[in-house]
Every structure is written in structure tokens, then in C-alpha cells.
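Standup notes, protein team

Yesterday: finished cleaning the Desulfococcus multivorans DSM 2059 set.
Today: Transglutaminase-like domain-containing protein structure.
Blockers: none.

Input for Transglutaminase-like domain-containing protein:
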Amino acid sequence: MDTFKVFPDNIITDSGPVSREFLNLDIGTFTAACRFVHELPYGYNSDRDDLMILFKERFGSCTTKHAVIATLAEELGLPIHKAVGIYAMNEEIVAGADAILKKYGLPYLPMLHCFLAYGDHRVDLTEGNRNGKKRSIEEFLHTEKVIPNISKKEEYLLYRNALTNTVLRRKELDGINVKQILHAREEGLALLKANIRQA
């Protein structure tokens, strides 16, 4: 992943609710907004579908952090988009993943993560946060551009479709079904949350 320093450092103008919120915080440039969001603690918000929840609770996940900055980019007319990717969760990335993989007979657990896309660059504003992962995610099994504030329901449907149409067609997942993955995913999410609490 690249750092947010690859982005253009445009001045923030009063172009919508998110740009207005940053201006109210005396944050005047796009990269200063990225720095602010990156430095906020990592955590799962009470309502991830509320675009402004990051400002209210002063922390965020990959979902809410990237929703805010992708919306700001949209308001300012910058060619920066939110993308979701499915990565292969294993022990190398998340401590404790091996137990889940053994339980469900998986080579890895396909999990969702989101980031910002800018040309050939990928930027993760949760990198370096205590986000439950041991390292950044560099490789994805599937990626897709999405609207900045994609709802929880829409994101889940995207995940299910990508599993069925792309990920489960991979040779190493031969014989694995969607239900196995979905049950394992619930445990994977719980593991990530537990790792954040222990960080």
C-alpha cells in the first residue's frame, strides 16, 4: 500500500457536508484531512452507515475512515475512489486465524477490507492503526470500486457475489462452499475485534 502523500493536496472548499466538517475543524487541505483520519484510533463505529459517525465518535474502521475521505474527494472533484477487496486472511496477517482455518478446513479465510484507489495507487488509512492485523494487506483475491458510503447490506451482498462468482472458483478452494466461508467469516470478524481490544 502507498501512503496518502501520493494524493493531490487540494485546498478544501465548502463543497458539501464532509468538506464543511473538515473546515469547521480548521483542516484546510486534502492531505491534512487524510492525516487527521489516519491518526484517529481504529474501532468499529456504532452506526457504520452514518457518514458523519467518524466525526461524532472520533474513531473509525476501514469502512468509515475511507467513506469520509472518498466522499471528500468526490465533493472536491478528485479522482480518488473507495474500493473493497477480498484478501486471504491467515496467521501471517491475523494472529489466531489458524484455529479458524483448521476448524473449517480452509487454506485461508476470504475477508473484506477497503482502501482508497487513485490511479495505480492503493492507500489504506488504517495502516499503522491498531486494527487487529499484524501487517498491511498487499494482495487481494478480488477488488471492486464502490460508492463512498456503501451500506452494510450492499457490502455484504457484494462479498457474497464475489465469493460465488470469483473467489470460490479458485483451485485451492475446490470443495469449499459458501456456508463454510460465511460461518468462518463470523469467527474471523470476532477474532479481529478481540485482537483490537488486546492491542
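Follow-up from PR in the comments: The chain has a mean pLDDT of 95.
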